[in-house]
Amino acid sequence: MASIDGAGRPRAPSLSRGLSQLNTYTDGAVSPVDATKLPGDNVGAAISTPAQTVGKKGAKGKGAKAKKEKGKASIDDGKDRSSKGLLSDIVTFRWMTVPASSAKIAGLVLLLWVNWRLFTPSTPNPFSYFLFISHRVPLSAVLLSEPSAALSGDTIRYQKGYGDLAFLAFYIVVFSCLRQTTTLYVFLPFAKWWGIKNERKQERFVEQGYALLYWGSAGLFGLYVMSFQESWWFNLEHLWLKYPHWQMRPELKTYYLLQASYWLQQALVMLLGLEAPRKDYYELIAHHLVTLWLIGWSYLVNLTMIGTTVFVCMDIPDTWLAMAKGFNYLGLDGLATALFGCLMFIWTYFRIYLSAFTLYSVWYQFDLIPSHTREWAPAKGWWLVPWMRYQIFAPLAILLALNCFWYALMWRVMIRALKGDVSDEREDGEYDDEEEEKKTQ
């Protein structure tokens, strides 16, 4: 039986519906609506979680409709996103969901930086640590390790340091502001203009809009950064040769710390319970933990080259997934189906084949590391003692297992959709809500 999409257009229960019922697992994007209810905050209610969802089987008539309206706040309910004062928003972490507050925090840091620059230009600006990458490597050290850099004039390098923590903190705030601003004031108005009337579908569409914005940008930036590395397009023996890779080009350090900021912001969202749980909630938690583990350890032990490789493998497929799901919520079923077909190929190549190839490199090419650096000497940038092979291999193996789990789920959705049987692959009761709305109107 045909269903009706958010814009009131009839659609067949085919691959497009199966695609909409595929959990949004890889991007970790948080809806601006679900992320409005903070712990201990009794002002307004966010969009209901699955446990609160009304419109279940057996609910009938006006009572069901009234209960549904009571347990579910409107997506236009601005009071849930209103500021309670900047200090209060900072203490309660409400700034993560109130774009005006996160913008004020970021603006305050920028103002302090400008003030220092204007009135005390001769002294180092401490607020630069928040806005820009820091810990530049002296020219003499760059030329000692890379003599060829003098010929090309490419002599700017950075190393890690404690100032990176300030950079991470600032851009966690920036990403919170960017997420809420774009979803509330760009993607949500577009969804309404397009004619998506169902609130849950509006919520899902804005998630995919932000996911496409972030993953598309991160994927392109990652390819740009990777193009400067000897490991370009997965020449993975260079992940180990010339170790340690402790001197980073400015674009590499910027890319790595921005990725870390994004994932830390997403982790805070999960820890504060700002995201409505999905059917693969625990797999998503595992994905976040493994990702943060990989980012932190690879940065600490000077393996940013392998980190960039993993980022590219993850981000490019996520971009296509967001596009496919976004067009699906717009009711453009043909385009969504074509993109999903492309996604299956891209996912297979990047998240399965290249991820497995990276695991192979960890296991079999680890011994390419120069013999004199195979000791635990952090002061020299040497961390890769023999047992580190297992420490690197383990999280990458877990990540590959999660990719295979989601890969199997996508094939299941495709096969069942082609058979016309996707009725039980529901995402957080989305279609239950829609069907109940029709019954009670």
TrEMBL record:
InterPro entries in alphabetical order: Lag1/Lac1-like, TLC-dom
Q: Where is the composition biased (Basic and acidic residues)?
A: 71-81
Bias (Polar residues) occurs at: 17-26
Q: Where is the composition biased (Basic residues)?
A: 57-70
Q: Which residues form the TLC domain?
A: 200-419
Cellular component (GO) terms are: endoplasmic reticulum membrane
Q: Where is this region: Disordered?
A: 1-81
Localization, UniProt: Endoplasmic reticulum membrane
The record, for Pfam families, names:
TRAM_LAG1_CLN8
Stretches that traverse the bilayer: 91-114, 165-191, 211-234, 294-314, 326-350, 390-409
User: What are the record keywords, sorted?
Assistant: Endoplasmic reticulum, Glycoprotein, Membrane, Transferase, Transmembrane, Transmembrane helix
**Gene Ontology molecular functions:** sphingosine N-acyltransferase activity
**How does this protein sit in the membrane?**
Multi-pass membrane protein
GO terms, biological process? ceramide biosynthetic process
Principal localisation: endoplasmic reticulum
Q: Which domain of life is it from?
A: Eukaryota
Q: Which family, according to UniProt?
A: Belongs to the sphingosine N-acyltransferase family.
Recorded protein name is Longevity assurance proteins LAG1/LAC1
Q: Which organism is it from?
A: Tilletiopsis washingtonensis
